Amino acid sequence: MPEQFDPTAMTARFRERAAAVRRRGLPPVEGAERRRIMEQMELDYMDFAMLADAEAGLEDGVLTLRVDLRPPAPRDS
Questions:
Q1: Could you give the C-alpha distances from 76 to 68, 69, 70, 73, in angstroms and in order?
Q2: pTM exceeds 0.90, yes or no
Q3: Owning domain of residue 47
Q4: Helix axes 31-52, 7-23, angle to 10 degrees
């Protein structure tokens, strides 16, 4: 591992990857294969976006990613 590992830079790279998945076009395939590719793209986006939103920390050589998966609180009207 690089001596100057930056957890914030890592989460920024995941944000870039999530955006790249959204911009990625589909190859010219049809039917079941197209559905599989689309499902994989959705999973890739979800994984990358989740890691991009993580609070990342590095303490004593241990990388910790904290991801809040609770639903948003209801808004007051």
A1: 21, 21, 18, 9
A2: no
A3: 7-66
A4: 150
